[in-house]
Write a structure and sequence with these properties.
With 152 residues, the chain is α+β, with helices and mostly antiparallel strands. The protein contains three helices and six strands; from the N terminus they run αβββαβαββ. The protein has a six-stranded mixed β-sheet with strand order 1-2-3-4-6-5. It comes from Janthinobacterium violaceinigrum.
Length: 152
């Protein structure tokens, strides 16, 4: 439900459980323009490393994120159970990190959930730098980072 800001300004503030294209575009473009003006950089770029079925080319899983200001962000990473334990996750993560290096990123950051894959990342050189409890009880968000070595 719209709420009127203080002082009877001619604006409303709306809370929603959806994000439409106009909202996303306005916020993203505004924040990007502000960041560009302050830093003088315009290097943000999305990144995905995807595994597809060889015959149908249907997407089965992979990693999504972005690079910006010399930092690689791993936002989402998923593989179906049938592809786990085959080395596929490691290969996807390696390619994701390598592309970050190629783009000039010195560090990488992600968060995962305690029941997902923090140990997977730790075995690949990521380190925990924070943890916040969340629901259900006994679960936490695990924040991780990795220093990326310069590409050879």
């Amino acid at each position: 439900m719209p709420a009127t800001p203080p002082n009877d300004l001619p604006y409303t503030i709306c809370v929603s459980d959806t994000i439409d294209a106009e909202v996303e575009q306005t916020i993203l473009e505004g924040l990007n323009a502000y960041n560009d003006a302050i830093t003088g950089y315009q290097d943000r770029q999305v990144l995905s490393v995807v595994v597809r079925d060889r015959d149908s080319q249907r997407v089965l899983g992979g990693a999504m994120g972005r690079t910006s200001l010399g930092l690689l962000f791993l936002d989402l990473f998923y593989l179906p159970a049938s592809l786990r334990g085959l080395g596929m996750g490691s290969r996807i993560l390696e390619q994701f990190e390598e592309e970050g290096r190629r783009r000039g990123c010195a560090s990488a950051v992600l968060y995962t959930i305690s029941f997902q894959a923090p140990e997977f990342y730790e075995r690949r050189g990521w380190r925990r730098f924070g943890e916040i409890a969340c629901s259900p009880e006994g679960t936490s968000r695990v924040f991780m980072s990795k220093t990326l070595q310069a590409a050879s």
